[in-house]
Amino acid sequence: MNDFIAYCGLDCEKCDARIATLNNDDRLRANVAAEWSELNGVEITPEMINCVGCRVNGVKTPYCDSLCPIRKCALSKGVETCGSCDKMEKCEKVAMVISNNPQAMKNLLDES
């Protein structure tokens, strides 16, 4: 199992927040904060852009750490990813991601 496949199937290794964290890249943090602020309609500051991955120990963005409904659900069920949950096919939480990202669904099916 690839530890950098998030509970939802996204690939944390390709996430700009993780890349900015690993490279201590403040310019990338600022770009990610601006993009995510616009996408989500909330203020996200560059200081919030620190994450090493959804399923690995270490720092996470505030959203990934405590707000993500998918991560909360997976942790409460004790599943490795949503791909190992028998309710994934009908889950409205993970549908937000996999309906718009075929690679995320492929990652979940490959990891299950």
Overview of this protein structure:
It is a single chain. With 112 residues, the protein is mainly α. The protein has six helices and no strands. It has helices at residues 16-23, 26-40, 62-67, 69-77, 92-98, 102-111.
Shape: globular
H/E topology pattern: HHHHHH
Supply Rg: 14 Å
Helical stretch tally: 6
Query: How would you classify the helix and strand content by structural class?
Result: mainly alpha
Mean pLDDT: 94
Q: What proportion of the residues is helical, as a percent range?
A: 40-55%
Main attributes?
112 residues; mainly alpha
Which helices and strands occur, and which strands form pairs?
Elements: H1 16-23, H2 26-40, H3 62-67, H4 69-77, H5 92-98, H6 102-111
Short characterization:
The chain is mainly α and 112 residues long. It is 49% helix and 0% strand.
